[in-house]
Amino acid sequence: MRDEYDFSKGRQGAVIPVPSGKTRITIRIDDDVVEWFKTQVHKAGGGNYQTLMNHALREYMNGENESFEAVLRRVLREELSGAG
User: Fold this and answer.
1) Rg of the chain over CA atoms, in angstroms?
2) Cα(84)–Cα(80) distance, rounded to whole angstroms?
3) pLDDT digit string (tens) for 38-70?
4) Best-predicted range by mean pLDDT among 22-26, 42-46, 75-79?
5) Separation of alpha carbons 48 and 42, rounded Å
6) What are the start-end ranges of the H helices in 1-84?
7) Residue 6: DSSP 8-state
8) Dihedral angle over CA of 31, 36, 48, 54, nearest 10
9) Do 40 and 49 touch, CB atoms closer than 8 A?
10) Residue ranges per structural domain of the chain
């Protein structure tokens, strides 16, 4: 190890620049939620859990997810039609 280092050409900030269209934020997510997303990525054979979280948020924004009531009604209709 050197006694002195020259930081005169050093730069402050992120080591990896944030891509265009992305914003770096700090957010607190419950451990179990983060672990669930990481597990889903692992089961899929790899990838990025943050990308998966971004996708889930985008689906919610676009209203692409069914409400619990809609899912329940659909499942009940399917089950009842098969029973009778």
Assistant:
1) 23
2) 6
3) 999 999 999 999 999 999 898 888 887 788 788
4) 42-46
5) 9
6) 31-43, 49-61, 68-83
7) -
8) -80
9) yes
10) 31-83
